[in-house]
Amino acid sequence: MLGYSGIKWQSVLTSPMPPRPVVDALAGGYRRIPVAQIGADIFCDSRLIAEEIAELAGKPELSTKEITDSQWRFIDHVEKEVFFAAIGSLPPKRMMKVLLTHLSPLQTIRFLWDRLGIARETTADGDKPSARQFRGHLRELDQQLLYPFFFGNTVQHADFALYHALWFVVEVGGMPLPSRLQRLGNWYQRMQKFGHGHAAAIGGKDALAMASASQPRLIPQSHTVDPLIGKAVSLAPSDYAKDAVRGILVGSSRHRWIVKRNSGKYGTLHVHFPKRGYQLNELD
Q1: Does residue 76 surpass a pLDDT of 80?
Q2: Which one, 42, 44, 160, 174, has least CB within 10 Å?
Q3: Cα dist. 129→100, 109, 113, 122, 207 in Å?
Q4: What's this model's pTM, rounded to 2 decimal places?
């Protein structure tokens, strides 16, 4: 999305599994990556990050605000069933080889143990993601692709959601898509050409310094009418990796919640979450 939109951005690398001191300091214990940051505003979940990119770049096709039910079903399917089947399709020896080029043996073991725990949360007993299951998904996707992109002649949020799963297999796992699935292969090449945009690498200390030197952006008055505004709440994903973030609810719109955290050393931070796929609870 950043490549497609042409936005310049800065990249902070973090550990593939907790602990992640910089992410924890900014997002307050949110378990997943990536997160995005604009000053003292922190954005959790790729879908909400997409909303920010869409707004900054003037690319509404990247947003999920007005998409159809069929697009939502497609996105939910590829981000869960297809993605975890993609991971399950990679031979263990190949995965170990790839991981060991980036991580120490101890980190590799920790990473695999961490992801095994997530897999247990997302799959029912007797329904383990597999290479066979993944191949079936690929055949169905190839048959479904009737246009240059999945929902027409222009790229949409749904295309990027699927690309994430297939990128993992092709680029990380080193396993090209089956050549007989020509339509899907051509689509993948079109997506690949967008690239990743203009990124500059910075350190975690730089990101924390930006947060410390900034104030959260103003919250529109229309986002302050929820009866829980001003209350202590916890927010967590509703499907897996359910680690909660705690703070004061300061914003609520149709599509997002905003929680204020006092991070101490780094000042007041606003952590943004999408409403879809997340659970908010009032704290006693």
Answers
A1: yes
A2: 174
A3: 23, 20, 16, 10, 37
A4: 0.89
Q: What is the pLDDT of residues 227-276, one digit of tens each?
A: 999 999 999 998 876 889 999 999 999 999 999 999 889 999 999 999 99
CA 64 to chain centre: 13
For the four alpha carbons of 144, 169, 30 and 265, in that order, the dihedral sign comes to negative
CA 177 to chain centre: 23
Q: Is 82 exposed, middle or buried (0-12, 13-18, 19+ CB in 10 A)?
A: buried
Q: Contact 85/137 with Cβ under 8 angstroms?
A: yes
Contact (Cβ atoms closer than 8 angstroms) between residue 64 and residue 73: no
Give residues with Cβ within 8 angstroms of 174, minimum separation 6: 94, 98
Task: Give the confidence band of 121 by pLDDT, cuts at 50, 70, 90.
Answer: low
